[in-house]
Amino acid sequence: MFKSRDNFHFSLCVGVVVPRNILLFLSAQMDCVGGGTAFHDVIAELRKLTTQVTHVIPVSNDEGSAAEILRVFGGPAVGDLRSRCLALSDGSNVETLAVRALLGHRLPNDPRRAKSEWYQIVEGEHTLWIGLSEAHRQIIRGFSVHFQTQVHLRSDEKFCFSDGSIGDFFLVGARIFSLSLDAATLLFSEVLGIPAGSKVLPVISTSDRLTLGCQLMDSKEREIIRGHKKISHPSDRLPHSSRIKRVFYVSSEGDNEVFPSVNPAVLKHLDEVDCIVYEMGSLFTSICSSLLLNGVGEKIASRTCPKVLILSGSNDFETSGFKASSYVTVITEALNRVHGNGRNRLRNKPKHYITTLFVPKGYKFVVDNRLLEEQEVFDVSVSSFCHVLMFRIEQEDQRYR
Length: 401
Hints:
The protein is α/β, with parallel strands linked by helices. The chain is built from 15 helices and twelve strands. The strands form two sheets. Strands 4-3-2-1-9-10-11-12 form an eight-stranded parallel sheet, sandwiched between helices. A four-stranded antiparallel sheet has the order 6-5-7-8. The protein starts with 8 loop residues before the first strand and ends with a helix.
């Protein structure tokens, strides 16, 4: 139905539901900005059409076993990077399957059993090493040993291996050794054998810990919720007292707002792509945490290319009660940095960031077309996302050429 076009670039930028059966991008280049696991279900289908995909991932998720790594080592959270690389690994042969099984393995919840199993892995005696070549064994074991050495150097902290991810340990060991999160992520991607042309980039390239803060609509200026987990998945599972107003980065000590720099590689890639699509994920913690960085709004607004927002089928904890226009508003405010430092505030309209809105068939929220029209988002489609999305993006691309 569609012809392949080598120079077509497709950028997936934070927050969406991409179709499962795509026929257009047979040799396309795509950027995916977001995080979490919502996008993983479509990666296998996407791989059939293109491997030229760049995924831009937030590094502030302190949920799960990441909390223990952050407590002892600090630094950026690597769990979402590890998760996306594992999802991209195609497992096309016995060895890549074995590598994926090892780096995707989680230790038991029981602390003693977890520590014992980790020692087996570090010593190279675990059955998970079966099927790996000597080269892969040396690389993975080398950085696992380096991670363990760093644990010993921080013995006062008494690191707990419970429910720990082997892939996270590898990434942290590689980051500390290379002094570069980008380098560690690249090595991890290559060891896992993600498809040629695919890239995984941290949205912020740093060795510092990044902590998200959140203000609610009804809170006072200095009242914040601190941490990705407390914002998105509070332990009591009770709704916040009001809707989320904004997320932002806060200092490691105290609640002062800080402004980390976006990874230059992300801006470079956004400057080159021919289509921007906001990938599915938690709206505030996964999506806006990437969009609010200085330079991102300027870069996206400057592009005269299709900019597609694809919504999930229902609202989640962060977006309870949201209508379709609410998503557009929040994304626009994040890119304009409306609630941040006034000196860096932008005044772009929603249409400068979003030209097309896709809603999945069977959606469970209100699609308020009148407000969407007021936002000048006129191209709204409700579809099953099989072939319609790719056809409409093709139409958008032709319109901007």
